[in-house]
Amino acid sequence: MRRKPLVVDLFCGAGGYGRGFLDSGFHIALAVDNNRAAVRTYKTNIPSATVLCEDIRDLSCDDINYLISPSSVDVVIGSPPCEPFTAANPRRFKEPLDRLYRDPIGSLVLNFIELVGCLSPKVFVMENVPAILDDGLKDAITKEFKSVGYEVYFNVLRAEEYGNPSRRTRVFISNIPLNPPKAGVKVKVIDAIKDLPEPSEDAIIPNHDPPPRLSPRKLRRAARLKWGSSLILYEGSGSRLLPNMVKLNPYDLAPTVLGSSRFIHPFEPRLLTVREQARLMGFPDDHVFLGGKDEQYNQVGEAVPYTLSKAIASEVLRFL
C-alpha cells in the first residue's frame, strides 16, 4: 500500500490546519508549538502525531529528522504568529521590513523558511495575514524562500468562500499555486449554531458549557444592541478603532474570529460559548479544546479555519 504523505506542522496551535490535512488523507508526523495548552489540545485531537511543546528557534532539521526518521517529509505547513504584521496590533513596527527582520516574533517567519530549506518538502504552505505582503515584505519573503531553493506563490484566500461561517482573508505562501474549488454556498451564523442546545455544565457537546458572564452593565447594553453593533472598541495600529463583542447578525457571516474575539449571541444577552465560536471556524464538534477558558477562545481564534484547511489539503494531495 502506498503510504500517506507525511506532514510537519509548525506553529501548529490547536490543530485547525493539521486536522484539515489529517482528515484529507495525510499523516501528521510531527507538530510543534510553544503554547502548552494548544499542544495538549493538538495531541488530544491528533493522537497519532508526535507533538512538541518547543520554541521553533530551538529546533533543528536534525531534531526533526531524528524524530520522524527514516521517512522523508512530503509537506510542511505552518502559521507563524501574525501579531507583528497585523493592523490590529497598535505596537507593530512602523517600517514593514522591521516587522520581519527586527521584531523577534516577526522573524519567526525566517525560522520557518530555514526549516523548509533543510527539510526540502515537496510542498510547503505558510499561512499569515495579508499585511505580511506590505511595502517591501513580499519581495523580501520571495528572496528568502529563493535562498533556500523555492519559488513562491502568494495565494490570497477567503475562508467564507469555502463554507466557513465567518469572514477570514489570509495569504497562503506556497511553492505551488492554490486555487481550491469554492463551496458555492454562504454558510450564515444561524446555519452554524442553530442546532446547539442551551449551554450547560453537563453539556454532551464539548466546550459548550456556559460562557463567562457579562457585567450587569454590559448585560443591559447587550440586550439593547442591534445586530452588527459592538459593546467595545479597541485601538489598533495607527490609532484605528476596532470592534469587539459584536452582536452577531444571524442571517449573515460572522466577522473575523480572532484570538481576542468575543461575540454576543444574536438572540440571547450572553457571549458565545467556545463551541459556538468553534462552529464559526468550521471545527467539527469532536475537536476538543483544553486549557483555561481564555486559552480555549484564543485557540479557536488563532486557528486556520477547518473548512479552508481541508480545501487546501485537497489541492496539495492532488498535486502530490
Tell me about this structure.
The chain is an alpha/beta fold and 320 residues long. It folds into 2 domains: 6-186 and 305-319, Rossmann fold (3-Layer(aba) Sandwich), CATH 3.40.50.150; 189-301, Alpha-Beta Complex (DNA Methylase, Chain A, domain 2), CATH 3.90.120.10. The protein is built from 11 helices and 10 strands. The protein has a 7-stranded mixed beta sheet, with helices on both faces. A 3-stranded mixed beta sheet has the order 8-9-10. A hairpin with a 5-residue loop joins strand 8 and strand 9 (241-247). The longest helix is centred in the C-terminal third of the chain and has 14 residues, at 306-319. The chain is globular. It starts with 5 loop residues before the first strand and ends with a helix.
Number of helices: 11
Rg is: 20 Å
Helical proportion, percent range: 25-40%
Q: What structural class do you assign from the helix and strand content?
A: alpha/beta
CATH class of the largest domain: Alpha Beta
Task: Give the termini distance in whole angstroms.
Answer: 16 Å
Oligomer: single chain
**What is the chain-wise order of helices and strands?**
EHEHEHEHHEHEEHHEEEHHH
Q: What composes the largest sheet? A: 7 strands, mixed
The strand count comes to: 10
